[in-house]
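Closing statement on the EPZ sub-project.
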Amino acid sequence: MPGQKLVIEGGKPLSGEIKVQGAKNSSLPILAASLLCCGESVLKNCPMLSDVYASCRILNRLGCKCRAENNMVIVDSSSADKAEIPDEMMREMRSSIIFMGALLGKFGYCSLSYPGGCELGPRPIDMHLDAVRKMGASVNDEFGVIRCRAEKGLHGTKISLKYPSVGATENIMLAAVLAKGETIIYNAAREPEIIDLGMYLNKCGAVVKGAGGSTIVIEGRERLHGCIHNIMPDRIAAATYISAVAATRGEINILNFDATLAESFLPVFEQMGCDVYVYDGNIYVGARKPLKGVGKIITMPHPGFPTDAQAVVMAVLCRAKGSSIFEETIFESRYRHVNALVKMGADIKTAGKAAVIEGVRKMYGAKVEATDLRGGAAMAVAALGAEGITEISELRYIDRGYESIENVLTSLGASVKRV
Ligand code: EPZ
């Protein structure tokens, strides 16, 4: 909704237990993958996010029957008959490029516009286009509209990625599952969401081996059927709510959450001085002691520290004793939340890929604007640990990745209202 904002009164330690929403970055590629199936897929534990609704609208526009209701998306793609996605629909969704592989795999043709940039900086897709060319598609990419055509259908091939791109890995997987022959992806992204996508595809009758590792082998099949799939929990949402508790010196239990999903960032909370316990499939994090700076954190492809957790962890480190340094190696401009944190009293200096944080004793509520998905969440984390009232506008960014963030924070004892 335009013009909404979060009003947060900070200063109260949060505590409680939550079940984390389904993973946005697993649900979006899986929704695109469902297009490849002849039949119905039922996606459970799907987060109710604007990007998910946008994906459902795109699937319906392509002739599928797709509906989302209370954390379940049911999509029947047997009636899919279009391969063009209109500009206005592509604009609604950042990661719409993920439909390219599925459309090419299903119809041998696709036409979609590609905005090419977002709040994190340029979002090139050269690896996506090079890969589908190698699989037999011709690509015409002009005036922001990408038209791909594979007259004789796609064929398997060996693709070595120059960088373990998550989106490129996913697009190749979707293009390869119905291609003729075998496709091997070298230097594939290893994010857990890739494993979830591979599991969904295999349940639909695909043959995907090695997802989660650097080499993925896909054997093309004739056709895929639907399936029932539980979307994995959102590890970045987990990192966000853990950060909210750490910033307020509180404690949290994340219920039935596989701790291996958090291995890339949990150690940083321990370095800060949080107590972290993994027990019976849950995670406990307590921040009763004063926190301290953690030295250098470099964002890396999985299993390194995730770029998506950089902003929310930075918001905690603003009030940790001593200094911390981030090196953001994945995206060009992913420090757009820093100005708002400085406005709230943080001591942060950025230079190119580096951000140096000197812990301050107190931060203060302020009127700030969300700049991007995780940056907006970082402002909420900082606001919870700040003295006084913070108003965060441009909530559409936050709503793209967090299912009713105000309800989750309220359940942890925060005083937050959406107005
Ligand atoms: C996915 O984006 C996620 N989005 C991002 O999450 C996440 O930050 C990112 O992976 C890294 O983990 C979804 O899964 C929907 P990349 P993606 O391709 O696929 C460059 C969030 O907050 N690159 O791994 O776009 C690219 O410019 C979002 O939930 C090329 O140069 O990430 C970037 O610098 C934000 N050429 C780097 O690689 C290409 O062809 C990583 O991009 C493709 C990418």
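The first strand starts at residue 6 and ends at 9. With this model delivered, the sub-project is considered complete and its resources will be redirected to Aim 3.
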